Amino acid sequence: MSQEQQTLLQQKITFHGAGAMAEAIVRGLISRFVVRPQDITMLNRSNQKRQEELSTRYAVHTGTAAHSLDHLAASPVIVLCMKPKDAAAALRELGPLLSPDQLIVSVIAGLSIRTMQTLLGRKQPIARTMPNTSSTIGLGATGLAFSEEITDEQRSTVMTMFEAVGIVTIVPEDKLEVLTGISGSGPAYVYYLMEAMIAAGIRGGLSSQQSRDLTVQTVLGASRMVQQTGMEPMKLRSDVTSPGGATQAALKTLDEGDFFENVIAAVNRCAERSREMGAALEGDLK
């Protein structure tokens, strides 16, 4: 089957901002044949070298937002990937250009739908998203929340876009911070655990490479076991924990440090901090 036959979204998409997350989404859209490269435009503020890299790597159109206002006005889907500090000016400039049926997809952390619509000066259809860094390898977990103005077709478009880089979960907007605490920042918790496991191996006499390889494979295997068997982590943990054995001794040590509750507290604190940062950002934009 040809690439054109496999393409799912027959519409043009413009990325307003061309950083790492924008590139991850574009890579997924193209590699999964969801959107044709010629239907994607990536705009940044002024970095011509970055534009050239993206154009060469993905065969997409590139340019600067300042010189592409007509293009933004005509794009059915606009993905906002700029830094939060640049969001207010970009949204205020974008608002007067839009028609009522243009879809705005936000990848800006902490910026609510209500604030974006206020800055746009109109009740534009908006999808607010919270992807994570694993999207760069097609294994992301993205939370989605939609404004009331979103149509079924637009909702389907957003779902298709982010399914190209992993799994998606639709939540009420006020739950996006909880999702941030689990999947948005979650990779960092796993990396931290991996750091500790690698350090333990090295201190125990294994080489750095041996410790790394064993840790990476162990985390990968454990994750795949949960995914492929459909079994609960608690059951899988129980199956490898013999009474009085080495694994039980290890878990007892973790419990003495209140490992389980500390992870829950970390997720909650991440969500709380996300709310704090969002409130501060919105305060600064007013």
Automatic annotation (TrEMBL):
Signal peptide: none annotated. GO terms for cellular component: cytoplasm. Pfam families: F420_oxidored, P5CR_dimer. Residues 173-277 form the Pyrroline-5-carboxylate reductase dimerisation domain. It comes from the Bacteria. One of its GO terms (molecular function) is pyrroline-5-carboxylate reductase activity. InterPro entries: 6-PGluconate_DH-like_C_sf (IPR008927), NAD(P)-bd_dom_sf (IPR036291), P5C_Rdtase_cat_N (IPR028939), P5CR-like_CS (IPR053790), P5CR_dimer (IPR029036), Pyrroline-COOH_reductase (IPR000304). GO terms for biological process: L-proline biosynthetic process. Keywords: Amino-acid biosynthesis, Cytoplasm, NADP, Oxidoreductase, Proline biosynthesis. Residues 12-110 form the Pyrroline-5-carboxylate reductase catalytic N-terminal domain. It is found in: Cytoplasm. The keyword Transmembrane helix does not apply. Its EC number is 1.5.1.2. Its main location: cytoplasm. It catalyses: L-proline + NADP(+) = (S)-1-pyrroline-5-carboxylate + NADPH + 2 H(+); L-proline + NAD(+) = (S)-1-pyrroline-5-carboxylate + NADH + 2 H(+). Pathway: Amino-acid biosynthesis; L-proline biosynthesis; L-proline from L-glutamate 5-semialdehyde: step 1/1. Belongs to the pyrroline-5-carboxylate reductase family. Catalyzes the reduction of 1-pyrroline-5-carboxylate (PCA) to L-proline. This is Pyrroline-5-carboxylate reductase. It comes from Paenibacillus xylanivorans. The gene is proC.
